[in-house]
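Honest question from a wet-lab person: if I give you the sequences of every part of a complex, can you actually get the arrangement of the whole thing, not just the pieces? Trying it with mine:
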Amino acid sequence: MRKPWWKILTVILLLYTVIHGFLGEVPRQPILNESVRNLYFHVTMWFGMITLLTVSIVNSVKYLSKGNLYHDLLASEYNKTAIVFGILGCITGSIWGNYTWGDPWPNDPKLNAVAIGMLIYLAYMVLRSSMPDPQKRARISAVYNVFAFAVFIPLIFVLPRMVASLHPGNGGNPGLKPAETTTELRIVFYPAIIAWTLLGVWITSLKIRFAKLEENQNNNINE
Amino acid sequence: MLFAEIKQLIIKDFQLEWRKKYALNGMLLYVVSTAYICYTSFKLRANDIEPITWNTLYWIVILFTAILAISKSFADEKDGRLLYLYTLVSAEAVILSKIIFNFVVVLVLSVLGLLVYCLFMGGPVQDWPMFLLSILLASIGFATTLSLVSGIAAKAENSAMLMPILSFPVVIPILLLILKISKNALDGLDPSNSADEILILVALDVIVGVLSVILYPYLWRS
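Yes, you can. This is the full assembly:
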């Protein structure tokens, strides 16, 4: 991942998403109208968030099995970026909901589930900040991270499917329903998922480099 | 070997509890006072309470009681005692014994709480066996989820504040399923309506229980 090709790819895909997303053809549907373009910005945030969270969990498990603090750094930084993606997903969803459902935050099981999910990961950050010792902080927060993920997944993937929801595509994968999306949407939607996820990885990798530099500097001062 | 260790640890927990009688009496008083607050603020004013409000209030009272009761399960184990246990038994035995002990405590508290609550607020339940089953399932769910969280909170500083912050979001999925099942029992709906929820709840309990046993050894080493 040190080579720059994927960063160039991210920029190209993002430019494509934004330009084609706002100017390209979209199918005319009642109520949705032009707001269907939000598909490229709202739904993709959740794909990005789940991917980043999965990377975070994998690193927490790696930390527990190997005990290398570098994995703990990765887990916490990916978690932070995932929270940012989640908040952006909520904001873009509120804008969309405001114009299609007439309410920025209606009583919908998926909205409630994701609000609780955000609470879980904010609690993870509070837990981390409560312990000064790095090894202890790493181990305990990794345990909580893995434990919370096991509750978070049923919360957002299983429970909302059992009740009626305002969101489309209930009873299947709500993001990828080929019957309800047309080719015009899909040629932007799939690249957009890749673009936003790569952007999240990029942001996180910069933050990790920054954290490592900071740590090195502190060590030098100590010596 | 594992079963013998678990048995001994549970006996130890019960003996300690029986000697001090602090948790049970304290928690009982807590349940009684919250039920009384509900009585003065709802029943006395309106003299009539909707079943859905009755149900939600009951589970909120039980949720807070369970979090308070379970949060002391690891906080009471002082560092010296945990170190002593470390030389004697396996980590799996410790967490399993805690889960079983907490399950019994929460079950006793919710049943006694239900009696007090019904005394003050009336009992608009139409399907009692189903409601009691939901209490049993809730006790299992709360005990499995909150035992490990209590262990995490006890390791961190300022654990009194961390326990609710860490446990609320984790326990909410279980609470939502329980609310659904007990509401169906309140309305006297056919048990088949709750079958899906019960299945998911049991699956969630199993996942969380297995994860607790896998994860606790890492927590215990620190």
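Two things worth pointing out. Chain A has six helices and no strands. Chain A touches chain B at residues 64, 116-117, 119-120, 123, 126-127, 130-131, 135-136, 139-140, 142-144, 146-148, 150-151, 154-155, 158-159, 162 (CB under 8 Å).
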